[in-house]
């Protein structure tokens, strides 16, 4: 592994450690729903199709993992910003919800919040208003997030969008959310 990749991996490890210290609520939110976001399975949405794209450099965390499958899709095949050249890395848990939680993706760690950049350039965290084939009780029942989770998640995403590739993706996703009139609620 070259020096730049080692530095990138250390940066992702620091982000993981920061997010390990917080949780959306003051208890295991998976107890509310039976870990539905990890284990949902139906004919329309088979669990084996569930994968998350990774932030740039995050794939380095999964190179030697037996619990996660790492694969790549050409960015031209996806609706990604033009700045994302080459392959986009995705990861899939092989045995949900029994994954190595120490390396679960950033998107798992910060769900159900997603980063959002308003039309005037302000950065916010919003509730993920995407259509899911399941209901997240935190969203549905308006359960209050822990303050530590909000603060740390905001800080981590603010750092992540300092990477131009992440910024471009978050900005594109924000415009898509607004153009489709997907409901979202600004949380912070």
In short:
With 188 residues, the chain is of the alpha+beta class.
The major pleated sheet works out as: 3 strands, antiparallel
Gross morphology:
globular
Order of helices and strands: HHHEEEHEEHHH
The percent range for strand residues is 5-15%
What is the structural class? Answer: alpha+beta
Number of H- or I-type helical stretches: 7
Overall strand count: 5
Spatial order of the strands in the main sheet?
1-3-2
Unreliable residue runs: none
Distance between the termini: 37 Å
Question: What portion of residues is helical?
Answer: 25-40%
The overall average pLDDT, rounded, is 86
**Computed Rg:** 16 Å
Overview of the structural elements:
By secondary structure, this protein is α+β, with helices and mostly antiparallel strands. 35% of the residues lie in helices and 14% in strands. It has 7 helices and 5 strands, in the order H-H-H-E-E-E-H-E-E-H-H-H. The chain has helices at 3-20, 30-33, 36-39, 106-110, 137-140, 147-160, 164-179, and strands at 52-53, 68-74, 87-93, 113-117, 123-127. The strands form 2 sheets. It has a 3-stranded antiparallel sheet with strand order 1-3-2, with no helix packed on it. A hairpin with a 5-residue loop joins strand 4 (113-117) and strand 5. The chain is globular and about 45 Å long.
């Amino acid at each position: 592994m070259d020096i730049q990749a080692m530095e990138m991996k250390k940066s992702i490890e620091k982000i993981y450690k920061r997010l390990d210290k917080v949780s959306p609520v003051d208890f295991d939110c998976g107890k509310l729903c039976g870990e539905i976001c990890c284990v949902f399975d139906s004919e329309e949405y088979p669990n084996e199709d569930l994968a998350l794209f990774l932030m740039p450099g995050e794939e380095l965390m999964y190179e030697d993992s037996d619990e996660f499958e790492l694969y790549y899709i050409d960015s031209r095949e996806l609706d990604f910003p033009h700045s994302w050249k080459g392959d986009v890395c995705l990861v899939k848990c092989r045995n949900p919800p029994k994954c190595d939680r120490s390396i679960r993706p950033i998107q798992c760690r910060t769900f159900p919040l997603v980063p959002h950049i308003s039309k005037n350039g302000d950065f916010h965290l919003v509730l993920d208003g995407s259509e899911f084939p399941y209901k997240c009780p935190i969203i549905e029942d308006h359960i209050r997030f822990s303050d530590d989770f909000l603060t740390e998640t905001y800080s981590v995403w603010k750092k992540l969008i300092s990477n131009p590739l992440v910024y471009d993706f978050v900005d594109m996703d924000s415009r898509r959310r607004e153009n489709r009139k997907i409901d979202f609620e600004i949380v912070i």
